[in-house]
Amino acid sequence: MTEESLVATTQRLQPQLLHHFMTLITENRLAHAYLFNGADGTGRQQLAQVIAMRLFCQNVTADGLPCGQCSECQRIMAGDHPDVVTVIPDGQRIKVDQVRYLKSEFTKSAVEGNQKIFIVDQVERMTTGAANSLLKFIEEPVGNTVALLLTANKNLILPTILSRTQIVDFLRVAPSALADALAAAGIAPSQRHLLATLTESVQAAKALTAEDWLKNAQTNVGQWFAAACAGDERAFVRVQTELLPLGTNRDLQGTVLDMVVQVWHDVLRQQNATVPTDQLAFPQVAKTSGEMAQRLSIEQLVAIMTLTLETRSQLAGNMNFQGILEALTLQILTQISR
């Protein structure tokens, strides 16, 4: 992504927040710690980078935006600026060595000027010990420093950190704007609605479609769903043969569970209205989901939806992925056979 497209993307996703922070910097009113709370694709990373560029830019535009062309902007974009410290999770967690690095940087003055900025993405993945170390910096900042903490879920952040940062909630991306962006990215029409329920990031959407992962997942979840709807106990077997291989890591396991939610949400949406096939997350099983919408009572469907929605918290609680899906399948088969 070029600097120009970075600024343009931020303007498209969060124009009001971009204007607000550029004004704060111009008027020298930037606080020392913010928590950016927004789903993936809402522009929290982009805004953080644009703020860093604006703080160091040598040729600010007439609109008060970073130029994107000077050496300072270029170095920040390349991740090569000594006074812009960025940390992202190494795997599933922000690890001890990363926290040590952060603590070391917290105690140092700016290398090239009088300004230093810290960007910590997915801060909810810090251990409690790491978060407490971060809290000490927030409470006792050294020099002219700014900390931008980024998260997709502020409810997972320690209350002590929430109380000591200025919380900035990011607006969700308009579905129509996301659909247009997915179309422009070359995403197949049959996959766009599903992807729009899974992520607000075009980049993340493209990653899911790489090597036909999403295509295979959409097919396999659809086949599992059809078997479950038929009361076929082979749906239980499909968990092991078709669903488990999709979840090669924790993030993809979560995505599979989100897809299970969406295939049943298609049924719920069709209970009281006719939904065009191209607006369903799983258009390939539209006939089956439509039939289930007529067959199941609202009580049965609410019970199934509740079961599917609980799977995400079960995964977060370190329950076994296979166990979650197998238990869910048995519970759904029980509901359908009533």
How many distinct domains?
A: 2
Residue stretches low in confidence (pLDDT < 50, at least 5 long) are: none
CATH topology of the largest domain: Rossmann fold
The count of DSSP E runs of length 2 or more, i.e. the number of strands, is 5
Strand order of the largest sheet: 2-3-4-1-5
- Categorize the overall geometry: elongated
Strand content: 5-15%
Mean pLDDT: 88
**Which radius of gyration do the C-alpha atoms yield?**
23 Å
Query: Helix and strand string, N-terminal first?
Result: HHEHHEHEHEHEHHHHHHHHH
CATH class of the largest domain: Alpha Beta
Distance between the termini: 53 Å
Count of DSSP H/I helices: 16
The helix fraction, in percent, is: 55-70%
CATH architecture of the largest domain: 3-Layer(aba) Sandwich
Which structural category do the helix and sheet elements fall into?
alpha/beta
Largest sheet: 5 strands, parallel
**CATH homologous superfamily label of the largest domain:** P-loop containing nucleotide triphosphate hydrolases
How would you characterize the overall build of this protein?
- By secondary structure, the chain is an alpha/beta fold.
- It has 2 domains: 3-169, 3-Layer(aba) Sandwich (Rossmann fold), CATH 3.40.50.300; 175-336, no CATH class.
- The protein is 56% helix and 7% strand.
- The protein is built from 16 helices and 5 strands.
- A 5-stranded parallel sheet has the order 2-3-4-1-5, sandwiched between helices.
- Helix 5 (96-106) links the parallel strand 2 (84-87) and strand 3.
- Helix 11 packs across helix 13 and helix 13 (250-269) runs antiparallel to helix 15 (298-316).
- The model has no long low-confidence stretch (mean pLDDT 88).
